[in-house]
Amino acid sequence: VYEREKKGKDAPFDERDMAAIVDVDNGAIAARWTRHLGPVVSVAISPDGQALASGGWDKSLFLFRQHSSREIARERFGWILRKVRFSPDGRLLAVAAWTPPNAVGNQESDPSAVLYEVLYASASIARQ
């Protein structure tokens, strides 16, 4: 995985690279999505339990609704996603990553955090 990351290549499709909502009482998978190419690093379930956000090594953020077979939003970044979290009211989605600093020029690094407003009625996310 690390060698692919260094070369900027996505992993091949693998059904095990998935985001899922699991019933904690019996371990049954209530919903699952296999859209990532590579390991899923972080997932967050919305406070109402109806949406799931996932981020991974493929530099992709996906937003899913429980009763939809496809994502309702997707965003691709220039860095690997390390953490996704909903706000307590479910209206905001925070996405974060560790990004190395630029060693040349002004020594600034790429943004390592983005905050989205989640708009379920329009099935989209809006960068803040």
Could you name the key traits of this structure?
1 helix; 4-stranded antiparallel sheet; 128 residues; mainly beta
Write structural notes for this entry.
- This protein has 1 helix and 10 strands.
- The longest helix is centred in the N-terminal third of the chain and has 6 residues, at 2-7.
- The radius of gyration is 15 Å and the shape is globular.
- It has a 4-stranded antiparallel β-sheet, with no helix packed on it. A 4-stranded antiparallel β-sheet has the order 7-8-9-10, with no helix packed on it.
- The chain is mainly beta.
- It has one helix at residues 2-7, and strands spanning 19-22, 29-33, 40-45, 51-56, 60-65, 73-76, 83-86, 92-96, 113-119, 124-127.
- The mean pLDDT is 80.
Shape: globular
* Mean pLDDT rating: 80
What amount of the residues lies in strands? 35-45%
Biggest pleated sheet: 4 strands, antiparallel
Ends apart, CA distance between termini: 31 Å
How many separate helices?
A: 1
What is the percent of helical residues? under 10%
Main β-sheet, spatial strand arrangement = 3-4-5-6
Series of secondary-structure elements, N-terminal to C-terminal:
HEEEEEEEEEE
- The computed structural class is mainly beta
Number of strands: 10
Radius of gyration: 15 Å
Low-pLDDT windows of residues: none
